[in-house]
Amino acid sequence: MTAFWASLIFVILAEMGDKTQLLAMAFATRYKATTVLWGVFVATALNHLLAVAVGNYLTAFVPLSTIQIAAAVSFVLFGLWTIRGDQLEGEDKRFSFSPFWTVAIAFFVAEMGDKTQLATVALAAKYQSPIEVWFGTNIGMLVADAIGIVIGIVMGKHIPERAVKWGAALVFIGFGIYGIHQNIPERILTPMVEVVSLALLAVAGYLLARTTQEAPSPEPGS
Questions:
Q1: Where are the domains of the chain?
Q2: DSSP symbols for 10-49
Q3: Would you give per-residue pLDDT tens digits along the chain (222 residues)?
Q4: What is d(CA 3, CA 6) in angstroms, rounded to the nearest whole number?
Q5: Contact, 158 vs 137, CB < 8 A?
């Protein structure tokens, strides 16, 4: 069950403030929340099935130790990505079908190459439990998008974006640093390397946070 709970928690964190969560919130202003969530579920189930297959396929060619290091590094990068945040760029207006298929297709396309899909690939490669990872990431997406819809639309309130983003980012980065420390040999990961790497990571986080604060923050439906 470790793979399930890890996948559930990481995807919920990755989805907070993510483009696909904003997309779900935007659709909820036009369609029923249940229709949006069903569209999200179908799109996520197919998208993350591909991601899980890719993650498990990698282990046939790449040593597990290398995958563990790559997964740990990717978690740090996902943390920085979370700090940067996402914005909608017309994804909610790109398709015009029935409400369900509009949501499902738009969500499937938006999720391709997105942080949560890449996190699913990394989790599948790391844990080698495809069913548990698939279930965990699907439920995680539904929970995160339901939270976004309820807080951002139904209750007429905004998600405390900055606090949520920083909390999620720190969890990602913390797990990533732990994974790197556990898998990279001490002869490479010397104290000096660790100090320099942490300093560069702090600078990168600061610069991304500054960039995010200076950029405009449009409403989900705009």
A1: 2-214
A2: HHHHHHTT-HHHHHHHHHHTTS-HHHHHHHHHHHHHHHHH
A3: 789 999 999 898 888 777 788 888 888 888 888 999 999 999 999 999 999 998 888 877 878 778 778 878 888 887 787 777 666 666 656 666 788 999 999 899 888 878 888 889 989 988 889 999 999 999 999 999 898 788 766 665 565 667 767 777 787 788 788 878 877 877 787 888 888 888 888 888 878 777 766 555 444 444
A4: 5
A5: no
Q: Which structure tokens are listed for 49?
A: 């099935």
The residue assigned the tokens 């997964």 is 71
Alpha-carbon distances, residue 222 vs 25, 92, 216 (angstroms): 11, 9, 12
3-state helix vs strand vs coil in the chain, percent to 5: 75, 0, 25
Helix (H, G, I), strand (E, B) or coil at 70: helix
8, two tokens: 């559930």
Q: CA 41 to CA 137: how far, in whole Å?
A: 11
- What is the maximal distance between C-alpha atoms in the chain? 58
Alpha carbon distance 6, 8 (integer Å): 5
Name every residue whose Cβ is closer than 8 Å to that of residue 196 and which is 6 or more positions away in sequence.
none
Helix boundaries (H) for 59-98: 64-84
CB atoms within 10 A of CB 212: 15
Integer Cα distance of 222 and 218 in angstroms: 6
